[in-house]
Write a structure and sequence with these properties.
Blueprint: H1 4-9, H2 15-24, H3 28-37, E1 40-41, E2 56-57, E3 63-68, H4 77-89, E4 94-97, H5 104-114, E5 119-121, H6 123-135, H7 143-156, E6 160-163, H8 169-178, H9 187-199, H10 204-207, H11 209-219, E7 222-225, H12 240-258, E8 263-267, H13 276-286, E9 292-295, H14 307-321, E10 325-327, H15 340-361, H16 366-378, H17 382-388, H18 392-401, H19 418-425, H20 427-432
Helix pairs in contact: 4-5, 4-15, 6-7, 7-11, 8-12, 13-14, 14-15, 16-17, 17-18
Length: 433
């Protein structure tokens, strides 16, 4: 079995490419060329049977990811499956299973069975937990332990994996000399950094990168090259450690392409608004146009409980500048495990950011969606407005709760509705102007 990239280079248009081209409204041959070049990926593990193919990258609509997964405090798989259903209904385009609870394999298999969208994981999470169970210590993990987990997750059907291959001993030295405020906030990055510093050994994901490529190519798993040293606060943004890691990821992107492996590159993090465009442009240049997957970025550190908003602000400017994939942030970020309601809030906020950016980028269909909404508002066609809403359920509920009975306008303006007044008194004359 070969990868989508290898097949695209051979001139083949796969069923997955046909499905993505139809949804995106672009020519199949144009999409094939982008996949062959590496600027678009279709994460589609050959063993993920329930998957409906989705594309991420250049010229496509901006996509949104949602994170779920069990923890030691909340081990119930059923609750995560409920979240999965909600996030798919809310329009998420991918989901990451970050489970660290008691039965990680069962949780992942259940999510893969139910998910029609690509599923991603961070294998170092499971490898670390199992090392503690097996050896009594996280730092006792062997490279074979880590690669065994990667192989298992790929064989199970995971479509993309976050691997922090750019966290090297050299980069950690840059970090030490930087004097960061909050050091490392990436959980996977911190696991690897602790292992490397304790064992005085290089990152096995970097040192044995060809081994990693061999595994993922068997199942056509897309690599999501993780930013283990992403800034966790505004003060640490765009520093030497972050940039040094990115330079390594650029090199690793090209090495993956040489083997026909699809690649996305992950980015920050907490970034001041004025630095976001530069961060996106730098990644796109260094990584030769590979799809860019960003967490937020969050534009301020002082809004716990509202970080879905701080991330949506940053996500809009990032995607407008060329980022392709937004990882959602929920209101519970920095505070605790998100509830079902938090998951939906996070997805909708990120989808708003993605759509606003698609309008700015001129993605086909984005402008037209808003135009249809404007026409429905002019006509006071409330049912059509609800249908066109990014969250029809909330729009319908608000319409019902905020108005007494069936009213033509709304309770904000009532008889003084601008649309109604213009329609009654100026409509005919306006049309002649």
């Amino acid at each position: 079995m070969t990868t989508q990239m290898i097949r695209a280079r051979k001139g083949e248009i796969t069923e997955e490419m046909k499905a993505v081209a139809k949804v995106e409204g672009i020519e199949e041959e144009v999409l094939r060329e982008k996949i062959a070049k590496g600027t678009v990926v279709i994460p589609a593990n050959i063993n993920h049977k329930s998957l409906k193919a989705i594309g991420f990258g250049e010229g496509l609509t901006t996509k949104v990811n949602a994170n779920i997964g069990t923890s030691t405090d909340y081990p119930e798989v059923e609750k995560e499956l409920d979240k999965l259903q909600v996030l798919m209904e809310a329009g998420a385009h991918a989901v990451m299973d970050l489970s660290t609870g008691p039965d990680k394999d069962a949780s992942r298999l259940a999510i893969l069975e139910k998910s029609e969208i690509p599923v991603g994981t961070v294998p170092i999470y499971q490898a670390t937990v199992e090392a503690m169970e097996k050896h009594g210590s996280m730092v006792a993990m062997t490279s074979d332990d880590l690669f065994a987990v990667i192989e298992k997750q790929c064989a199970q059907g995971v479509d993309f994996i976050t691997v922090h291959c750019g966290v090297t001993l050299g980069v950690l030295e840059k970090l030490r000399g930087e004097g960061r405020v909050v050091d490392i906030v990436s959980r996977g990055g911190s696991f690897l950094a602790g292992w490397m510093l304790h064992n005085k050994r290089e990152n096995p994901l970097y040192e044995e990168y060809d081994r990693l490529l061999e595994i993922v190519s068997k199942y056509d798993v897309t690599l999501s090259l993780g930013d283990g040293l992403r800034p966790g606060c505004l003060a640490d943004a765009t520093d030497r450690a972050q940039v040094e890691e990115l330079l390594i990821l650029g090199e690793l992107t090209e090495r993956a392409w040489e083997k026909g492996v699809q690649v996305m590159v992950e980015g920050p993090g907490h970034v001041p608004y004025g630095q976001i465009v530069a961060n996106v442009q730098l990644q796109k240049r260094v990584c030769k146009g590979a799809p860019f997957y960003v967490l937020g970025p969050l534009v301020t550190d002082v809004a716990p409980g509202y970080d879905h908003i701080t991330a949506a602000i940053g996500g809009t400017i990032a995607a407008s500048a060329g980022a392709d994939f937004l990882c959602y942030v929920t209101p519970a970020e920095h505070l605790g495990l998100p509830s079902i309601e938090d998951v939906k809030e996070g997805v909708i906020a990120s989808r708003i950011a993605a759509h606003a950016a698609d309008i700015a980028k001129g993605i086909p269909g984005a402008w037209e969606w808003d135009l249809e909404m404007s026409k429905a508002r002019k006509d006071l066609d409330w049912e059509r407005q609800i249908e066109l809403s990014i969250d029809p359920e909330k729009a319908r509920r608000y319409r019902k709760e905020k108005n007494k009975g069936e009213v033509e306008a709304c309770s904000m303006c009532g008889d003084f509705c601008a649309m109604k007044i213009v329609g009654e008194h100026l409509g005919a004359d306006v049309n002649k102007c």
